[in-house]
Amino acid sequence: MPKLADAIRRTQRVESAPMGFGAARSAAPPTMLVGALIDGDDVASVVAAGADVVLLNVGGSLSAENVKKAREAAPAAVIGAMASVADSDEAKALKDAGLDFLVVSDLTPAAALLEDDLGYALALPNQPEELFLRSLGPMSFEVLYLAETPSPLTVGGQIALSRVAALAGKPLLTRAPGDASKDDLRCLRSVGVAGVITDAAGVAALKDTVASLPPRRGKREDRAVVSLPHGSVAAHEHDDDDDDDE
User: Fold this and answer.
1) Which of the residues 119, 192, 196, 197 has the least number of beta carbons within 10 Å of its own beta carbon?
2) What is the value of pTM for the model shown?
3) Is there a contact between 33 and 6 (Cβ–Cβ < 8 Å)?
């Protein structure tokens, strides 16, 4: 499993209550990833500040040597890149150098997605259409990347994010300021945002806020609901009528 997908899976576990009186509760793992979007050589400093994900904002081509330097500075972090990749050979070279995932757009050559051991994130347009989102289901994207988040976050903005995640069937990574509130992060988490990406200066504060979030809980709609098949009530009433006739 690509490293990004594994990191997302760990944050989405639902914590169950401890059993028995006085049962010890271990420290809850973070329920969202915190990432840093960086342009230069700030890898070590953002990881020291708590970044789980380092996103290299290259724009153009990315050399394997630069990826190796980033990996040496952050051996345990999830490292991704917004970079141009021409084909599967180039994608494989970046993976072999230590890159964990690549952020691509709809203009990226399709051959760049052929490296099975590399994770992929799709950068979405600001207002993706429904048919476009539904078509992403079978694609090999671990996550969808949103460069903009509704601010201030309203009910309408939350619904829009929920629509994106639900139609595409993928978790979201989205930009967020370092001073994002606890309530806003909880609202983002509830509609499928698996991680928030900020600039280098905002990582430490955002990491602290994410750490303060309550654990994930099972949704009320996940509780078992007993229902009868259509027609069963009518059939039961018909049987009663037959009994009365006798």
Assistant:
1) 192
2) 0.80
3) no
Tokens, residue 233: 């009530």
Q: Which two tokens stand for residue 126?
A: 């600001």
Is residue 31 over pLDDT 70?
Answer: yes
Alpha helices by DSSP H, listed for 1-87, are 3-11, 43-48, 64-73
Residue 29, pLDDT above cutoff 60: yes
Number of independent structural domains in the chain: 1
Strand, helix or coil for residue 127: coil
CA distance 22 to 54: 39
DSSP run (H or E) holding 38 = strand 33-38
Q: Is 130 part of a structural domain of the chain?
A: yes
- Cα separation, 107 vs 127, in Å, equals 17
CATH number at 52 reads 3.20.20.70
Distance CA 123, CA 74 (A): 24
Are the CB atoms for 135 and 106 separated by under 8 Å?
Answer: no
In a domain, 142, yes or no: yes
- pLDDT tens digit string along 48-103? 999 999 999 987 889 999 999 999 999 999 999 999 999 999 999 999 999 999 99
pLDDT of residue 218: 59
Report residue 130 as tokens: 């429904």
pLDDT at 155 over 50: yes
The secondary structure of residue 110, as a DSSP letter, is G
